Amino acid sequence: MAQYNISVNGEQHQVDAPPDTPMLWVLRDRLGLTGTKYGCGIAACGACAILLDGAEERSCQLPISEVGSKKIVTIEGLTRDGSHPAQRAWMENDVPQCGYCQPGQVIATAALLNKSPKPTDAEIDQVFETHICRCGTYHRIREAVKQAAKETS
Fold it and tell me: Which of 19, 57, 71, 141 is 20 to 30 A (C-alpha) from 25?
């Protein structure tokens, strides 16, 4: 095992882990941050999305050894009170049904707005074509992203 110093949600953590340990399991099992979900384990569904220096990253395939000094933000760290425009838009547009995939989708929205504050429908569709929602709330997701974009601009 190796020791890693990582920044998660604005706090420094020392973690002992094998170098190939996926960040998903570091977050959930070692740090108790269970908002980031396990979906497929192959970075295809988006349930495990986190922000890594402001960009979306699939934590199930990100080894702790590759994090270095980059800053990680999970759904718990996006805002403490649920006031991020994406979080508010999700609730106001009734996006969640089962809710399992929602943390990853909210994180993806935050990353998209970091990159493109006024995303087009094509940009939204491109991001969410790799986020699987079994409940099929994609039309609500698009509306929530658009609302969040309005609130951030």
Answer: 141
